[in-house]
Amino acid sequence: MNSVLEVIEAGPLSTIQDRGRLGYQRFGISASGAMDTVAFRVANALVDNDDDAAAIEMTLAGVTLKISEGRCHLAYVGAPAAISVDGVAIEPCTSFIAEEGSTITIGAMRSGLRGYLAVEGGILSEPVLGSRATHTRSNIGGLDGGPLRAGQRIPVGSPADPVICRELDPKMLPSHLGAVRVVLGPQDDLFTPAGISTFLGSEYRLSTKVDRMGCQLEGDRIEHAGDFNIVSDGIVNGSIQVPGTGQPIVLLADRQTTGGYAKIATVIGPDLRKVAQARPGQPLRFEAVDAEAAERIARQQEWDIQAVFSAIRERADSALPIPPDRWWTIDLLGGVAKA
Amino acid sequence: MTEASRHGLRFLDAGDGGLVVEFGREIDAGTNSAVMALAEQLAEANLDGILELIPTYRSLLVQFDPLRLTKSELATTVLSGWTSAKSTQRHASLWHIPVCYGGDHGMDLPFIAQTHGLDEAEVIARHAAATYRIYMIGFAPGFAYLGGLDPALHTSRRTDPRLKTPPRSISVGGMQTAVSPPLEIPSGWHMLGQTAVRTYDPARKSESFLFEPGDYLRFHAVTPQEYHRQLEAAETGDLVAEREDFRE
After folding, report:
1. Cis peptide leading into residue A162 (ω within 30°)
2. Residues B182 and B207 in one domain
3. Which is the most buried residue in A113, A227, B130, B243, by most CB within 10 A?
4. Is residue A103 within 8 Å of A86, Cβ to Cβ?
């Protein structure tokens, strides 16, 4: 038997995401998938899911969900936000059980931009081309190709019996702050040496044009050596294209598969989450590393994530959703939350 | 990587998980054939750690998992793949695509005709006379970029791109023509006609995508009545397009 989550409030932009729709970019299908893959993977690990289980990605503020069928085992990881079940606060990076009829609320994010709510057994929407990831521009994935809306019912897995709740010291999570490391290329030769120094030496601010497709940055104009158009070629997650305005655009999970602007550099995989968690107005600095160093950093980050997984502990009060001495708060605050 | 340049290739970095194999910088059928041949070789090599192969006009983007494969291992495989790719012949398809030109289905046909001093019938005849090569599928799901447009029809893109264009449009932009997917995509190209063919349809499980990059394509004109009949057939899963084998 599956459980069902009903969307009471959808938040500014909440979408169902997994590790992305791989293998179809040659046909023009965007990869999409979770923007902060570390937070996404840790959320899944806390509820004993595989890495590729679908979860809800929230932006700037969270969702309010009601368990309309069954019971659920959930965990929220990512940008810090207040988490509660029927008004009772839940610690961050701690998995919890919610029973049929209860209401889960994720509040506004205090810093960062994106957070993930994972459910044991995963979200069980219908996969499209092998993935449940939502790509709103081509209207595929998720429940109906779009962001979550109030009133929708999300089919999710049911927890194992007995449920094992887990927790992680949030300090174990790697930081998403600091310089964003890039590998120059593939078209760095279409920029002047001065243009490259500008790009690496100055600070860029995220404009208000920030979405899952890309981040328009604002700062010192980057000088092209000649034409800024190229014969269109492939784009990866983190490609930084510089159109005629000289202002860089970092392309992200929902990027188009091909593009015709010169690409000065590529954000390395491990640092994509620094861009994904940055808010409009926030400054970013870029730092160049060579391709071999980037591969080493990618391997190091994976070891770090495995260490985070190993640090996840079973909770002593695992079998119970809420400690018995706090049962009285459920009725009181639950009533208020539903009013 | 001098080994690469000896083979006429350039290896370019696309971060820690991307390698661009560049065959040239211009739009050229020979260059594009080389890209497709290498993509096919690498797909057959089935190297653990290769995540995606994205062939475009003049380069192949290989996305790989740096935890399973190093860029230098990948580069070695690319070079040996390229050596054998040069001697194999690709099998491509030739697609026949029905188009309802002009009127409500191709709102820019009068503009194209006027720009080139041709009458509308001549624009249609010229557009339907050529055999086009699918250089690339990109930008949107199943959006096919075609090379081989009659120079008399080359038309600069619109200065003000439209935010939405009709689904399944056949359009002209610069020296290229294109087939749109069944989506209302933004475009600065000129709309010449509309086809009932869905280049992309996730509901068509085994054939979600009609074309492979490197395939060939011809257009033929159909009446609005025929177009509407085909549109209904396409609703029930009929491809509407005809396919035949094509030897390069």
Report:
1. yes
2. yes
3. A113
4. yes
User: Are both B162 and B51 inside the same structural domain?
Assistant: no
Of B225, B160, B162, B151, nearest to B191 (Cα)? Answer: B162
Asked if the model's pLDDT at residue A322 lies above 60, the reply is no
DSSP states of chain B as a string? -HHHHHTT-EEEEBTBTEEEEE--SS--HHHHHHHHHHHHHHHHHT-TTEEEEEE-SSEEEEEE-TTT--HHHHHHHHHHHHHHHTTPPPEEEEEEEEEEESGGG-TTHHHHHHHHT--HHHHHHHHHHPPEEEEEE-SSTT-EEEE---GGG-BPPPSS-BS---TTEEEEEBTEEEE--SS---B-SEEEEE-S--SB-TTSGGGSB---TT-EEEEEE--HHHHHHHHHHHHTT---SEEEEEE-
For the stretch B32-84, pLDDT in tens is: 999 999 999 999 888 999 999 999 999 999 999 999 999 999 999 999 888 77
Q: Report the distance separating Cα B143 and Cα B53, nearest Å.
A: 17
Tally of domains in chain B: 2
Structure tokens at A189: 């030769």
Task: Suggest the residue from B9, B13, B16 to mutate for an interface test with chain A (most A CBs closer than 10 A).
Answer: B16
Count, in order, helices (H) and strands (E) of chain A: 5, 23
Nearest-neighbour CA in chain A from B142: distance (Å): 5
Cα A319 from chain centroid (whole Å): 29
Report the C-alpha gap between A15 and B154 in whole angstroms.
41
B36–chain A nearest CA distance, Å? 11
Query: Is the model's pLDDT at A51 over the cut of 70?
Result: yes
CA-to-CA distance for B103 and B108, rounded, in angstroms?
A: 9
Residues B58 and B109 grouped into a single domain: no
Is CATH 3.20.20.70 the right assignment for the domain spanning A180-297? no
Same-domain check for residues B124 and B48: no
B85, B104, B136: which is the final residue of a domain?
A: B85
**pTM of the predicted model, to two decimals?**
0.92
pLDDT in tens, B184-225: 998 989 999 999 999 999 888 888 999 999 999 999 999 999
For residues B205 and B138, state if they share a domain. Answer: yes
Contacts of A231 in chain B (CB under 8 A): 25-27, 56-58
Same structural domain, B56 and B96: no
* Cβ contact, residue pair A233, B57, below 8 Å: yes
Count Cβ atoms below 10 Å from residue A72 Cβ, excluding itself: 27
- CATH number of the domain at B36, please: 3.30.1360.40
Residue numbers of the domain that contains B72: 3-85
B149, B202: one domain: yes
Do both B76 and B109 map to the same domain?
no
Boundary residue ending a domain (B56, B85, B114): B85
Q: Tell me which residue in B61, B183, B202 faces A128 most closely, judged by beta carbons.
A: B202
Per DSSP, the residues of B110-145 read HHHHHHHT--HHHHHHHHHHPPEEEEEE-SSTT-EE
